[in-house]
Records
---
Amino acid sequence: DTGVSQDPRHKITKRGQNVTFRCDPISEHNRLYWYRQTLGQGPEFLTYFQNEAQLEKSRLLSDRFSAERPKGSFSTLEIQRTEQGDSAMYLCASSPTTYEQYFGPGTRLTVT
Amino acid sequence: GEDVEQSLFLSVREGDSSVINCTYTDSSSTYLYWYKQEPGAGLQLLTYIFSNMDMKQDQRLTVLLNKKDKHLSLRIADTQTGDSAIYFCAESILDTGRRALTFGSGTRLQVQP
């Protein structure tokens, strides 16, 4: 299977700790997206990369959030000083074009 | 602004057709998507349609687009228990240059045997 992969699948952390998630897109997809999904809601856009350039960031992406895609392949999303409100599913998607986006299985974050 | 709305819940019997509805923001240049999400999983892209099309069919799935009413529907023929999931409608407005998808809150489809 060569779909989008995310690691870890689940993360439990204490409030105030830093966490980092990894996304590996489908090979040769140069577009990569991060979304956040809370219970009972659809995903909400966080940020978008084309190759290694971060081209768009949502207002949801506070100063505690940072995302990188250093060589235009995998990406990381770091949350510093986690808060209980950060508990959510973090989804990564990749795309070969402007149109369709293919999602990974997500990382479920629980902040206690 | 972008706003995608869906009904919350649909229950059908196995073998019947399911019709899931969505309304979206008016735009002359929009891609509209249907995604499926099973419990604890990511989103699976089912199909997508450009706003200059009226219909798209792919095996058991039929997408109908009513541009006048800004209404999108997904019909699943011969619904099976494996179709039970949450279905999300999403929109990407090309005019704004944004690449992000805007999702509805999802419709939970329950298929009764």
---
Amino acid sequence: DAKTTQPTSMDCAEGRAANLPCNHSTISGNEYVYWYRQIHSQGPQYIIHGLKNNETNEMASLIITEDRKSSTLILPHATLRDTAVYYCIVREYGNKLVFGAGTILRVKS
Amino acid sequence: DTAVSQTPKYLVTQMGNDKSIKCEQNLGHDTMYWYKQDSKKFLKIMFSYNNKELIINETVPNRFSPKSPDKAHLNLHINSLELGDSAVYFCASSQLAQGFHNEQFFGPGTRLTVL
């Protein structure tokens, strides 16, 4: 079972920042937080991952709380093409990704 | 060039038939995976191969048999297809480096419909 809790859906205006929350209150000390997204009818796409420090790449920023029990994925300037299901994943043993239900992000013009 | 490719993209077949889905990656990765996404959109791992050796085998009926002829290919053969096998099947690959911070690259998916 997935170890994360995410809102079912969110809306965001085009050009605005999209902030997607994720709760992972049972995360252990050596587990990382990963974010993937799945655009309709495509395979999932890696976005970013982090342990405890905030991370940023060309796609997004990841903010992890100090107690590591929650995190927020930030898409700084959402576009219509960012409409997708966003999955927050806590990495389990070995190489296995366990996907939950994710958050449906709708970017609207 | 497509990094992870799957064939066919769509597969419609009758119950009881045997079918295969092929996956190829040109990223030079050493690890490949099969995932199943059912009608409720939950994505679940089925198998993982590292250097042609099975390393993850979830609770999957033995009608499903993955085969990895080399590091770049991981095919999925399904015997005696059932209605419940209808789903989208995704192949993925990654480089299993030290630790596990290895991004998985997914293929476009194969939509299997069993009638």
---
Amino acid sequence: ETGVTQTPRHLVMGMTNKKSLKCEQHLGHNAMYWYKQSAKKPLELMFVYNFKEQTENNSVPSRFSPECPNSSHLFLHLHTLQPEDSALYLCASSQLGMNTEAFFGQGTRLTVV
Amino acid sequence: KNEVEQSPQNLTAQEGEFITINCSYSVGISALHWLQQHPGGGIVSLFMLSSGKKKHGRLIATINIQEKHSSLHITASHPRDSAVYICALEGAGGTSYGKLTFGQGTILTVHP
């Protein structure tokens, strides 16, 4: 248990569906992140939220839409995805300015059919 | 050339062996992270280094800032150490803090 909880753990969705991934951190951190891990590729940063403000959008397609309503919750809204978007989506949190490590959730394994 | 390169990509060892995984990078950083990923996908942070050496149990991590190189050592390896070990760079300056750039990972298998 890392203090970062992601739901669901597994998700299968069609290309016309709309779904959301949820991440919650119980660590009091001020920054939250979405990462994508595709098969046989390194993890890639998608979005960064610092004090609920988005500070990074790493050229992510608009079919991925993040939302950070407060410093403890982070969502990734998905719509009209493509099969190549199938991947492991990982959420992480950290305390910026305190030189501390990042804590990761267990990830959501997404399959787009 | 990638900003961060790990070697080896795959490593097989017998239980009890001393293991070393290397990470070389080419950019300025504020810190280097070593992470462990088990087959289920979850990632655990092992170390965060900005200089010198750290030790947790059987794990030791070192970093040489001048040479832009870090190593992760596992002493007396055990089958439960089997996992993917990932080196990640944390950017330096301004809005780069907290953002990680990842190596491709080293797949470690320890046989009984």
---
Amino acid sequence: KAGVTQTPRYLIKTRGQQVTLSCSPISGHRSVSWYQQTPGQGLQFLFEYFSETQRNKGNFPGRFSGRQFSNSRSEMNVSTLELGDSALYLCASREGLAGSTDTQYFGPGTRLTVL
Amino acid sequence: EDQVTQSPEALRLQEGESSSLNCSYTVSGLRGLFWYRQDPGKGPEFLFTLYSAGEEKEKERLKATLTKKESFLHITAPKPEDSATYLCAGRGGSNYKLTFGKGTLLTVNP
């Protein structure tokens, strides 16, 4: 089975712009989560989607949003980019229903640099 | 609020020198403790899931154990290719969110 794929792998944007990142989960996986990883804060949870519905949300401002499509693919959007948004954005997928304990598998990440 | 704390932040070992990494957690209603390995510039790679105190799992030179407050990742006779950041995460709480520690950067010198 192919793993979790994320596109693009690298992005450079300027402050004030917006960006959309894409994630394709492992085939058969219905839940997709997004994380932001920075050297200072580590991995921080953004949100989780299941069956096109947001199930959980982390403590990020409303500039960060996401959605999930009927084929389980997901996108996240960051509007009005700030320098502090520079990070590795990771997508992870898992099989089952929200609340289950099955394992999350991560994609390679999208490295976003905001200038 | 759920918390996961890993120690040490960084660990440098000589090849063959065994050691342990610690993960302390306060996660309400823990429904799984996960260990991942992350190489620079890559996404975390799944290693183990532990569900209940007393559980142990092994994979090659790695063994993970779980108590009611901590998890340990024991590395036996490490090799340079074991160098990576090791992340611990707990799933629990009312919304079953996964909370990560900040990781331990392991360097194994030949």
